[in-house]
Design a protein that fits this description.
Number of domains: 3
Number of strands: 19
Shape: globular
CATH class of the largest domain: Alpha Beta
Structural class: alpha/beta
CATH superfamily of the largest domain: Dimethylsulfoxide Reductase, domain 2
Bound molecules: ligand MGD, iron/sulfur cluster, molybdenum atom
CATH topology of the largest domain: Dimethylsulfoxide Reductase, domain 2
Strand content: 5-15%
Helix content: 25-40%
Distance between the termini: 47 Å
Strand order of the largest sheet: 1-6-5-16-15-14-7-8
Largest sheet: 8 strands, mixed
């Protein structure tokens, strides 16, 4: 069942297009007025720095504003993630800001859920209705009966709300269907995930292998910039993708693999690299455990064995294995991002992690660098009254003992009555379009039809907003403050999100919405400020950062620490053994595979590929390799 946008939101009554009264939220004097300097690039506009939210990468941007209107968005040269450039989507952020379909006011459902009939209401009414629903669920079923689905940087305010309310049921497809399996795999292997932005030193890679990660089309700005420089420098690419992607066109080898068979290729590459002694033996001796088990494990994973599974010819597997190993140190298997593929995703992540270990990639220049973050103390919050139970995300008995966050589709399944002892009764959805993003969409509709309450905070009439009881329209990232952004990165930094114009229509920033709901539930103490600027002032002051300066520049850099073995870092591994775990005792103890095993994807052939059907798999040699 699908919901068309055309169908969405038949609003009864007037009130559309009502503009908010000037709220005074934009601090005058914040942002720098470039016309007072003499920067020729600004055409006399006011230029205000903030950071992008068109995707999770969060590049620093400069918003040009003239007569209260954003005229263009450009990359902030001072920001390490944008380095002066935005991707086309980031540049197109004004399209979101001025989208005529934005939700302009709070809405409450007026007909049966899902029929998408709403009436406009005041913020007070919408917030009272939201709080009443949350309060009812808490009283009748306990706080665990509320699930929060939260995606995006602005979600931090709603994480606080969930914790204060007392539920641990906080999940997102952005974890379960995206980076979750990869993070768990790298944590199990190296004791640490690769984070976001990923700690890939593409800038200095000599050989970069991309498996189902199409850098360039996916627009991870900094990675794409680094890739462009790496190629210019002569770095080589191995691209494993059934599809001839843009980046495959730049590769030395393109391997059009049969979907879902990557683990077989990875095991065969390891087989060749180990058999031929091409791995970094000094590094493995020093930092890893389980080498002998791994050697035995891949002994029979020959290129011939992999050929019938992957469709990649044995001699190509041998040649690319040698090529990849020949690039070390500085040979990197990209860990990927959207990691939920065929159900054996953590094991596939483990296979790339283990191959990266054989290449000595963790800690070496051109591999995965050791990041550091600026230390910005948190604002002290009260202890929640109710300590949340573990997430209710495994109703069908599927076990993810290493999952660091709740599994979003599991929370959805727990919302279908009768599937679990303690069913979920209500959803609070912030910035995630669950109708599109969760697998098995019919189950999502089933859950939505059964829930007691659905609250959606969005900017656009997304499909999920069509199923809400209450729709709370958020101001866009260009119209609001959010928390400080100080991720682990090779160059530590802290960036500020601040409004470049006041919120349009009757929309409100997320921090305000979350705080208002909390206050109505008696949880106001979790938002110990009147305006978020007080909160930001407190955090920056505690970190010794000048907030006025930060608001003028958008970003403040911290002290750069060494990031690689070449720069003097001694890598440490936060695993049970304190070493890189090629063999994982933890996985074995949980009854799971301690080393990755190939499992055929559903519907795969169980018989060998007959000769006539053999695909003409690589090597795809780019004839004009030397030319741009
Ligand atoms: N333009 C745009 N950019 C985006 C996003 C967006 O929606 N639009 N979303 C952002 C998000 S949230 C993420 S996580 C990233 C995702 O970006 P990526 O991590 O690059 O993931 P996908 O875009 O899903 O690309 C998957 C690639 O894997 C290939 N593939 C499919 N099956 C297999 C297989 O079995 N084996 C191998 N080796 N390859 C396979 C596909 O052909 C495709 O080229 O992009 C981000 N950037
Ligand atoms: N079939 C299928 N499913 C997938 C994927 C796939 O490739 N195919 N990819 C998976 C991946 S990698 C990911 S990361 C997830 C992503 O899936 P989602 O978590 O749904 O993320 P988006 O698609 O970015 O949707 C974002 C929603 O939030 C709203 N939004 C955006 N910015 C803001 C904001 O600042 N405030 C508020 N309040 N709302 C905002 C948008 O209008 C939109 O409705 O989907 C996963 N699911
Ligand atoms: S990669 Fe593009 S969309 Fe994502 S934050 Fe950067 S500029 Fe924005
Ligand atoms: Mo994603």
């Amino acid at each position: 069942m699908s919901v068309s946008r055309r169908q969405f939101i038949k609003i009864s009554g007037g009130g559309l297009g009502m503009a908010a009264a000037a709220s005074g939220l934009v601090s005058k004097g914040w942002g720098f007025d470039a016309s007072q300097g003499n920067d020729p690039r600004t055409d006399g506009d006011q230029v205000i720095p903030t950071f992008c939210e068109m995707c999770f990468w969060k590049c620093g941007l400069l918003a040009h504003v003239k007569d209260g209107r954003v005229t263009k968005l450009v990359g902030n040269p001072a920001h390490p993630l944008s380095q002066g450039h935005l991707c086309p989507r980031g540049t197109g952020g004004t399209g979101l800001l001025y989208d005529p379909d934005r939700i302009q006011q709070p809405l409450v459902r007026s007909e049966k859920r899902g029929e998408q009939e709403f009436r406009p209401v005041s913020w007070d009414d919408a917030l009272n209705e939201t709080a009443a629903r949350l309060d009812r669920i808490r009283k009748e079923h306990g706080p665990e009966a509320m699930a929060f689905f939260i995606h995006g940087f602005g979600g931090s305010w709603f994480n606080t709300l969930a914790t204060a309310y007392g539920t641990g049921n906080i999940g997102a497809p952005g974890w379960a269907q995206c980076r979750g399996a990869r993070e768990v795999a790298y944590e199990l292997t190296f004791g640490s995930g690769v984070g976001s932005p990923e700690v890939t030193d593409i800038e200095n890679s000599r050989v970069l292998t991309l498996m189902g990660s199409h850098l360039g089309e996916n627009m991870h700005n900094t990675q794409v910039q680094e890739l462009a420089r790496a190629i210019e420098r002569g770095a080589e690419l191995v691209v494993v993708d059934p599809r001839y992607s843009t980046v495959a066109g730049k590769a030395r080898y393109w391997l059009p693999i049969k979907p879902g068979t990557d683990i077989a290729l990875l095991l065969a590459w390891m087989h060749v690299i180990i058999e031929e002694g091409l791995y970094d033996a000094t590094y493995i001796d020093r930092y890893a455990v389980g080498m002998e088990q791994l050697r035995a494990h891949v002994a029979d994973k020959t290129p011939q064995w992999a050929f019938v599974r992957t469709g990649i010819r044995p001699e190509v597997i041998v040649e690319t294995a040698r090529f990849i190993a020949g690039g070390r140190p500085g040979s990197l298997i990209h860990p990927g991002r959207r990691a939920a593929w065929y159900g054996d995703d953590t094991q596939r992540g483990r296979a790339t992690a283990i191959l990266n270990a054989l290449l000595g990639a963790w800690g070496h220049q051109g591999g995965l660098y050791i990041a550091s973050a600026m230390s910005i103390p948190k604002v002290a919050l009260p202890k929640p009254e109710h300590q949340p139970l573990p997430p209710n995300d495994m109703p069908t008995g599927t076990v993810y003992p290493f999952g660091g966050e709740a599994i979003a589709n599991g929370l959805r399944d727990a919302s279908i009555p009768g599937t679990h002892a303690t069913d979920v009764k209500g959803w609070m959805v912030y910035a995630t379009n669950l109708i599109q993003a969760l697998p098995e969409g019919d189950k999502t509709i089933q859950a939505l039809q059964a829930l007691d309450s659905v609250i959606v905070v969005d900017m656009l009439p997304s499909e999920i907003a069509g199923w809400a009881d209450v729709v709370l329209p958020e101001a866009t990232y260009l119209e609001r403050h959010d928390d400080l952004f100080a991720p682990p990165y090779r160059q530590p930094f802290v960036a500020l999100r601040q409004p470049v114009i006041e919120p349009m229509y009757n929309t409100k920033p997320g921090w305000w919405i979350a705080k208002q709901v909390a206050e109505r539930l008696g949880l106001g103490a979790f938002y110990p400020f009147e305006h978020v600027e007080e909160y930001l002032a407190q955090r920056t002051e505690a970190a010794g950062i000048d907030l006025v300066e930060l608001s003028r520049t958008g970003v403040v850099l911290g002290k750069r620490e060494p990031t690689t073995i070449e720069e003097g870092v001694e890598p440490a591994f936060d695993t049970p053994s304190g070493k890189i775990e090629l063999y994982s005792e933890d996985l074995a103890a949980a009854g799971l595979l301690p080393m990755p095993e190939y499992t055929p994807p559903r519907g795969a052939r169980s018989r060998p590929v007959p000769p006539a059907e053999r695909p003409r798999a690589g090597p795809h040699l780019r004839p004009d390799h030397e030319q741009p």
